[in-house]
Amino acid sequence: MGIETHNQQRIHTYFFPFMAHGHMLPIVDMANLFASRGQHTTIVTTPLNAPEFSHTIQRTQESELRSYGIIVNSFYELEPAYADHYRNVLKRRAWHIGPVSLCNRDIEDKAKRGKKPAIDEHECLKWLDSKEPNSVIYISFGSIARFNSSQLREIALALVASGHQFVWVIRRLEDEKDEEGFLPDGFEKRMEGKGLIIREWAPQLLILDHRAVGAFLTHCGWNSTLEGICAGVPMVTWPVAAEQFYNEKFITHVLRTGVRVGARRWVGFQEGGGCDVGKEAIKKAICEVMEGEGAESIRNKAKALAAMARKAIEEGGSSYCDLNALIEEFGALKAAREARKDPSVECAK
């Protein structure tokens, strides 16, 4: 993110997103938050996002150490120990201004966020409206991760065995041409009315916020993790790469709002890997979070976190105040820079 002096009234803030489509979403949300406070914002991106950017990630980490501070898509009450450690022990500036996805308040905003969904939002809502509260599990592994056919087949078998209704967002490896081959014979026909399959992009916020959704099987990407928290939905955790394994620990061991599916190996985003988690393990985790002995406790904790998240962004909340403080900090930096350029200020000194 960069700052430019635009005029005396507003600061022009530039946002540079992580180069993957799903990661554009929090940047757009963050820019909207700045704009809602009267700031001028510009999002800078590439014509085509690069599939490999490990060198860029390394440079980003180096830049963070040299930066003035960091802006965090989180809220203080979610992880106070980490926020305090960063500010008080590491002596770094940090502003927790999230969850930024909560700036999408109405159905249209939630439905149109990101790519055009592969399903009409009204059709999706109609299907969910026909279900009982907390009776559907939503399954999505984010915008980058892909599983091969054998792993997708195990997921399908587990869904049948669990007996629970589901919304499943499927993204296969690009070089696998067989559209239906990974599904058990007659799967979609047998699951008609009980399961909704969405190929590629889904209106995730809209789905998670629906009363019918009782759990979220997720890859534990931070965006999806926060969106699940904001919806007050318990999670079945299945990390595949990067920091997702740390996020899983945070969900299951710190927040205690999720159940592990048992993934242990870094599969990678586009590689597909092998079939690492079998039907029985997937079924067990789904049933535990939907109907197990501790399911009600997990659900109550998830609902409490959702209330905390919404309070944080309201006027007077921790994230609301941090965003105001950040904008004021930018204003002070701008004023100081202009003062250094002003000859009259130099003479007065």
UniProtKB/TrEMBL annotation:
Keywords: Glycosyltransferase, Transferase. It comes from Punica granatum. Belongs to the UDP-glycosyltransferase family. InterPro entries: UDP_glucos_trans, UDP_glycos_trans_CS. It comes from the Eukaryota. This is Uncharacterized protein. Gene3D superfamilies: Glycogen Phosphorylase B (3.40.50.2000). The keyword Transferase applies. One of its GO terms (molecular function) is UDP-glucosyltransferase activity.
